[in-house]
Specification:
The structure is a single chain. The chain is of the alpha+beta class and about 80 residues long. The chain has one domain (about 1-80). Helix content is about 30%, strand content about 15%. The protein contains four helices and four strands. The protein has helices spanning about 1-5, 20-25, 30-35, 75-80, and strands at about 50-55, 60, 65, 70-75. The protein is globular. The chain starts with a helix and ends in a 5-residue tail after the last helix.
Length: about 80
Amino acid sequence: MEFCREHGLRTVPIERVVRGGEAAAYPHDLDGWLDAARGFYAGTKQRREGIVVRPIVETPSATLGGRLSFKVINNDFLLRDEG
């Protein structure tokens, strides 16, 4: 974020930052992540595609072979044309 500010670059919207006790109590399970991914882009009626989850402090992941980061797809977005 600091790099982007310094260079006048825009970033994607930050949906939410979870820290401290809130982070400890946050539902870090599939249902919790799927619920967080639901919704619409701010100021629109367009469903969000999903969210990208990253730790505040960059953290390596041996499983991912790089930094810890993952995307949660909004199921409502995937099913938007079914009905």
